[in-house]
Amino acid sequence: MTFQLREQENGRFRVSIRVFVPAVVTLLLSWYTLAFVAGSIDNFTSGGVISSLLIQLLFRWLPVLLVAVWLVLALDTQPLRAYGFDLSRRWVRDLFVGVLLSLAAFGLAWAVGYQRGTIALESEFQPQFETTLFWFVIAIAMIHFLIQNVYEEFIYRGLMIRGFTEGARDSGLSIRMAVLVATVSSLLLFGLYHVPRGFIFVVDSIFVGIAFAVPYLLTGSLALSIGVHFGRFSTNLWSLETGTADRVCWKMSD
User: Fold this and answer.
1) Rounded Cα–Cα distance for residues 33 and 237 (Å)
2) Is residue 172 domain-resident?
3) Residue 252 above 50 pLDDT?
4) DSSP string spanning 106-135?
5) Residues 181 and 173: beta-carbon distance below 8 Å
6) Is the pLDDT of residue 225 over 50?
7) How many CA atoms does the CB half-sphere of 118 hold within 13 Å?
8) Is residue 134 part of a domain?
9) Residue 241 pLDDT > 50, yes or no?
10) Between vectors from CA 36 to CA 34 and to CA 37, what angle results, nearest 5°?
11) How far apart are CA 95 and CA 231, in angstroms?
12) What is the pTM of this model?
């Protein structure tokens, strides 16, 4: 029995091909470009934040996202809006709503943690960057984070949940069970995607990914999911080694 690349009913590539080829190719591309980026940073800068962010943005995440979109469109006949992209006014509005919801949730968590003494707030003075340059670094970091988020939501929510649901339905599962299997599968793969960062990030990504998957399941759009994911940029900014004046740092207290 030979493996059929295309479905006999409609001539489309099989779900497994449509899902795993873009996911695996872009994952390998991400790892390869990461090695290139790391080498470029070592040779080109002395740990400069701006150079690091720009190189990662231009030579890693932008190419990875563009290749992902190209492969998905090349392997399927569906438009991008079938995967949750629809750059309408409502879509953009939902994107901002997702960001605000995420920021509100993190703000509440920080406030509660600070009140209970589990989070400490410190102010450090390291006058290495001018104010204008500092905000330029923040802007580049936000763009870098946004492009990475768009790629991850596109692959692990828009592509995988949709594709896995279709495959599970073809196997005879009910719509509810198919969506559940698809969602759990995408969450597990999203966790494995973070293996290079360590086991704790794998577990964290699986559970945090639920907050990204639910908006997509409820709306069929990636706007809220990308917004909620992007709202986490506030936590990532604290870890930037910007050397800015009056830098705010968060740390877990003992």
Assistant:
1) 23
2) yes
3) no
4) HHHHHHHHHHHTSEEEEEE----S-HHHHH
5) yes
6) yes
7) 6
8) yes
9) no
10) 65
11) 10
12) 0.85
